[in-house]
Sensor histidine kinase inhibitor, KipI family
Amino acid sequence: MSSHKISIRPFGIHAILVEWPVKIEEAILNEILEFVQYLKKYHLKETAWEFIPAYNSLTLICRDAEIDFGVLKPKLEEWYLAKKEPVLLEQYLWRLPVCYDAEYGVDLQEVSDHLGISFQEIIKLHSSAIYTVYGIGFLPGFTYLGGLPEALEIPRKPVPRAKVFKGSVGIAGKQTGIYPQDSPGGWNIIGICSVSMFDAKSKTPCFLKVGDKVQFYPISKAEYQLHKIESEVGIYKMEKLKWDA
């Protein structure tokens, strides 16, 4: 049985927005993901609908027709409250390499000074946590990863950089993330990941999905260069484990 109150409102003529309480909680995220699976299985065909879960919301987009909000809203409310069989979500833990060398972690010193901890402690804290993918956006393949240790919480930079390099690993607030391409950005950069986060030519352009888990592990500059080459030619093998928590 669904346990949280939701609100439903139109989001343009082809979309509808379903919102849960404004909290960043895995329980809410999992409830959203379970609702998505229920809708796909019983009510809304994937060929006609797009499902975009993130944090505490679900955006439903009808690809081919305008939505009759007055008709769909009560149906969604009914479907949400319906008693559902337990859903086993297919989630994975991805272990991704990060080079935390100061050449790539261009804000390490600033983060160290602000938080009052050493480079080594920053690396240990950042790579020991297991993060949850709460959303994908801003750029194709940019994943918002929740679960940053409290000791690493730091505000966004007051003035964003005009260019952050592809693969840069940043922290801001309670989150961490990897820039999938060169772009402007205001997060504090503490390292760089050698794995490409988005490939438009791939059948699955972004290998991570909302609900997946991520853990980073430190690598040297030499390992970063090797992994980067392997990733570019398509022979790098990522560590992917079934998440059964």
Q: What stands out?
A: The chain has two domains: 7-81, 91-243.
